[in-house]
Amino acid sequence: MSMNGFTITPTTALLVIDVQNDFCPGGNLAVEEGDRVIPVINSIAGRFPLVVATRDWHPQGHVSFASSHPGKEIQDTVRVDDIEQILWPDHCVQGTAGAEFHPDLDLRPINLVLHKGAKQGLDSYSAFFENDKKTETGLRSYLGGLGFDRVVVCGLAADVCVYFTAVDARGIGFETAVIWDATRGVDIPAGSVDEARRDMEQRGAAIIDSGDLTS
Known about the structure:
This protein has about 220 residues and is α/β, with parallel strands linked by helices. It has helices at about 35-45, 140-145, 160-170, 190-200; strands at about 5, 10-15, 50-55, 75-80, 85, 110-115, 150-155, 175-185, 205-210, 215. The protein has a single domain (about 5-60, about 90-215), classed as Isochorismatase-like (Rossmann fold), CATH 3.40.50. The strands form three sheets. A six-stranded parallel sheet has the order 6-3-2-7-8-9. It has a two-stranded parallel ribbon with strand order 1-10.
């Protein structure tokens, strides 16, 4: 489903996913053109009544790092506590420059910064759940407690954390849109961005551009 004219209502929150140095050009896990999302996000964030920004916030030696698994390579898959874990370069380590928001991101509209993936042995792609699919980050309770029932998702990366956030938002009942010109994907393996987009649409998320937002 595509939707034109997605309306920003008083109960619509913007979720800005992982616009961090390590996911932008020059970072340890750079998304091609990842920094291109920033001007779009800056241009729309002030229009929302609530803005939540997430950060990957990994401890040293995190389970998602290939360096934590001797003999394994980046993009290998391991099973940890019966959870399938893709291995990545060391990235977004707590307290490092790579974990900080990109300096061009305007932080003034942000109401809450949510750290995820902070547990040593458990990764978190979604802003709502850790990768065990049952440990909540607290975002659902935060939004629900404030009366928010609609979310607009943007940031990095389209086929990983943006995708899992949008899928979980739909799964727990939020009306959901993804701003396609405010996200970029890893696309490994090739085609994963298109597959993620199709799956989000099939689950009822609207795929829109920033120009489709109305107030």
